[in-house]
Amino acid sequence: MSEGHTPSDYEVALQAAKSPKSQLGWVILRLILILEALAGLVVVWQTFSGVLGDQEAPAGLRASIIISVVLCWIWVAITAFGAARGMPSWARGSAITMHVLMFSAAVGILQGILGTVAIGVALLLVSIVAIVGAVIARPMPPEPLEA
Questions:
Q1: pLDDT, tens only, 47-72
Q2: Residue 3: what pLDDT?
Q3: Distance CA 46, CA 68 (A)
Q4: Confidence of residue 145 (pLDDT cuts 50, 70, 90)
Q5: CA proximity to 114, closest of 127, 129, 104
Q6: Other C-beta atoms within 10 Å of 109: how many?
Q7: Cα–Cα distance for residue pair 99/34, rounded to 1 Å
Q8: Which one of 9, 64, 80, 126 has the largest count of C-beta atoms within 10 Å of its C-beta?
Q9: Rounded to 5 degrees, what angle do the CA atoms 123, 18, 91 make?
């Protein structure tokens, strides 16, 4: 930059988005989201087979469990798709939200409310790494409007 030139907000945001630190954050975030989307398919399949095989549970309960798991997987898949296609701010925000919720679930599991300690620790580690990746990742700024 030449002396006396003050960079615009757009130039500062663009430089931050293209920094090596930000690029590393996007790599981490994309990798985790893609792995979560793939693992989510396994969870959806296991939920379908488990819930449909349990004929003693009320039909409404079985349907609500299936709908909840499918909607959660769709959320992860859409976020992974968005992050894989670029560096949009909505994918970053969605990933942060999703992993804060995952962190909360992991804490609940580690308190003995549900699941095993191994699952709780795995969710905790993944959520922390994803949140750190999302925080250091910077989205591409939109093109400035010409006045």
A1: 988 888 878 888 888 889 999 999 99
A2: 66
A3: 14
A4: confident
A5: 104
A6: 20
A7: 14
A8: 80
A9: 40
